[in-house]
Amino acid sequence: MSRDFLPIVYSCLVFAILSPFSAESALTVGFYSTTCPSAETTVRSAITTALNGANGPAASLIRLHFHDCFVRGCDASVLLDASPANPSPENNPVFNMRGLDLIDAAKTAVEAICPGVVSCADILAFAARDAFNLLVPGGSLYDVPAGRRDGNVSSFLEAVANLPAPTMNLTQLETTFAAKGFSLKELIALSGAHSIGQAHCSSFQSRLYPYDSTQIDPTFAQMLQGKCPQNATVNGVVTQDFVTPDSLDVQYYNNIVNNKVLLFSDWSLRTDPIALTTIVSYSTDNLLNILWSVGI
């Protein structure tokens, strides 16, 4: 993080120390209804204004929230800056984390009306919900239970150990997600977030030289080779979904069926008959139905 983030990080740490509720407290919808009634609408306004219709940064907020929750739980530890004692935090540049400035803007807006009340972790959860609303065709606001306590530990090594890698096969993905309590069906539903956003060439380039026509559509592979030359000195960025790149929808599942996904981890979902049946059924469904059906 830049120095501009330091006041926000400090307030996160102060909240972690002074917050009256414990990490084990049950989360509740409307948690700030008496202490900061405008918290959620303030976050939504700040995020909407900052995004100004840009879908790329909105996708980054969803990814940021996923990274935060998958390492130490949804505790905003991904926001913590490097320090002499912890020189390599979860937001290490290797992860290309984006959206931190948007959370900063939302936190600043909330602090202006309710100083020291709303946790950074809850703000990140609210912001991800608001980004989701902007990306789903027609929009969709859902209730976000709140009451998270901010963490004060952030570890790059923990992030590497916990976060799923783009090179994982299905067995590895199932193990990684099962460790967090997710079933195969939930893993597939959550993977639908790859309907938006971008991926660096380095994340999938090994699939292109040479490419396996049983894993990746030849025409698609050749198009990607044009965007990610084998000996390029710059690590390019490619849209995850070339059909509806700005919409969070079920096109991702159609892309898997047609062997038109960038990451090996996404393609590997189709290697299990049960998983493939689920993917095919999702490809003709509505994303909101899918998420609600698995309780996400």
UniProtKB/TrEMBL annotation:
Ca(2+) 2 binds at D241, T244, D249. Its EC number is 1.11.1.7. SUPFAM superfamilies: Heme-dependent peroxidases (SSF48113). It is found in: Secreted. Keywords: Calcium, Disulfide bond, Glycoprotein, Heme, Hydrogen peroxide, Iron, Metal-binding, Oxidoreductase, Peroxidase, Secreted, Signal. Heme b binds at H194. One of its GO terms (biological process) is response to oxidative stress. The keyword Heme applies. The record marks R63 as: Transition state stabilizer. Binds 2 calcium ions per subunit. Binds 1 heme b (iron(II)-protoporphyrin IX) group per subunit. Ca(2+) 1 binds at D68, V71, G73, D75, S77. Belongs to the peroxidase family. Classical plant (class III) peroxidase subfamily. Removal of H(2)O(2), oxidation of toxic reductants, biosynthesis and degradation of lignin, suberization, auxin catabolism, response to environmental stresses such as wounding, pathogen attack and oxidative stress. This is Peroxidase. It comes from Rhynchospora pubera.
